[in-house]
Amino acid sequence: MDPSRGADLSSRAVEPLEREAQEVLSPAVFEYYRAGTGEGISRDEAAAAWRSWRFLPRLFQDVSRVSTETELFGTPLAAPVLAGPSALHTLAHPDGEAATAQGVSQAGSLLIQSARAGRKISSDRWWFQAYVLRDPSITEAQVRDAAARGARAIVLTADAPYVFRSAVPEAGSAAPENRTPGQQQDPSLSADAIGWLAAVSGLPVLVKGVLRPQDAIACVEAGAAGVIVSNHGGRQLDRAVASAYALRPVVEAVGSRVPVLVDGGIRNGADVLTALALGASAVLIGRPVLWALATGGAEGVRDLLRFYRDDLARTMAQAGVPSLAHIDDGLTARESVIPGPSA
Fold first, then answer.
1. For 9-326, which CATH class?
2. Given 64, 95, 250, 277, which residue has the most CB atoms within 10 angstroms?
3. CB count, 10 Å around CB of 172?
4. Cα–Cα dist 226/221, whole Å
C-alpha cells in the first residue's frame, strides 16, 4: 500500500475508543472487560512496556510502497494483526462474535474465538481458543465442533489453572462460581494436552500464555505448532512480566522452529512493528476489539484492524522497512541501551 494514504487515524485511535465504549456499555460490563487481577499492575504496565523500546531506522530504502501482508497456517492476512480471544462479545453487541467475525473478515484479518463466546461462528478466518477442563470430554466436544465449523487452528490457553474472576455481568451462568466441577479448568494440565488436542482436532495447536523460554521449548518439543507470549491481559497472575519484555527471550529459545505470536497492550502500529522486530510473527489485539465492537459493531472492528494495518505501514515506511521480510532485531533497542556514536 501507499503509506501516505489511508483512513484518518485520529478518528479511530484506541484510547478514544475506550472512552466511547465506557459511555455505551453498562458499568458492570465495562469493568468486566477492562478488569485486571490483584492491583492491576500487569494490566497497567502492558502498554508502557512497548513504549520503552526505540527504533533504529534505516536510511536510503525505497518505501514508496509498503507491504504489511503475511500468512499464518495457510490463511493470508492483510497485516500481522489478529483479534485475540475474549469472552462474551454478546455483552458488547447483540450480534456478538458474529459481528466481530464479519469485521475481522472485511479487514482481511483472523479471529481467535474464545471457548466462552456468546455466539458460535462459522468462517474460514478463525481459530478456536480452548481450555482443558476437568471433564476432558467437554473440551473434546468443543474442539471437534470448532474443527467442523471451519476453525483453522486450536489455541490452548495454558496460563489459567484457576479462574479468579468475579461473576460475569448479565450472564451469570457463565461465571466461574456457577460452573460444575467438570466445567472448570484442569489445574493438572500438562504439555501432553498439546498432542491430544492436535489428534482430536486434526489442526495445528498453539499454546497461549508463554512467558518463560523453557516453557516455550517444552511446548515445541510436545508438538506445539506455535506459541503465544501473553500474561492473559493481566487478568490472572498480577505482577506477571509484560509481554514486551518476555517476547525476545522466547523467540531466541525456539528460533525458527515455530511462529511466535504476542499480545498485551498493543495500541498502535509502532507497538506492532516493535513486536515484529523482537521476533513475533503476528500480534493479537484484545480489549480494543471489544471497544470497537461496542461502539461500531462489525464496521467498528473492521475500522480498528484497518487502523492497525495503516499505522503499521506508516511506521514501517518511516523506519525504512518496505515489507515484513525486511524486519530484523537490529531495528529495535531498549531505551536504556541505545547504541552510542560508534555503533
1. alpha beta
2. 250
3. 10
4. 11
Domain spans in the chain, listed from the N-terminal domain onward? 9-326
Write out the three cell numbers for 144: 471437534
Contact 159, 236 (CB under 8 A): yes
Amino acid in the structure at residue 279: G
Whether the Cβ atoms of residue 223 and residue 205 lie closer than 8 Å to each other: yes
| 8 Å CB contact between 44 and 235 | no
Which helix (H) or strand (E) element contains residue 228? strand 226-229
Per-residue confidence of the chain (343 residues) as pLDDT tens digits?
A: 777 655 454 445 788 899 999 999 999 999 999 999 999 999 989 999 999 999 999 999 999 999 999 999 999 999 999 999 999 999 999 999 999 999 999 999 999 999 999 999 888 899 999 999 999 999 999 999 999 999 999 999 998 888 765 556 655 444 555 678 778 887 989 999 999 999 999 999 999 999 999 999 999 999 999 999 999 988 989 999 999 999 999 999 999 999 999 999 999 999 999 999 999 999 999 999 999 999 999 999 999 999 999 999 999 999 999 999 999 989 998 876 555 555 4
Cell 470430554, located at residue: 137
H or E element that contains 206: strand 205-210
Nearest alpha carbon to residue 283 among 305, 258, 257, 314: 305
pTM as predicted? 0.91
Q: Cα 273 from chain centroid?
A: 15
120 CB neighbour count, 10 Å cutoff: 13
Q: What are phi and psi of 233, to 5 degrees?
A: 65, 20
**Size of the chain in residues:** 343
Rounded Cα distance, 207 and 220, in Å: 9
To the query of whether residue 232 is one of the catalytic residues in this protein, the response is yes
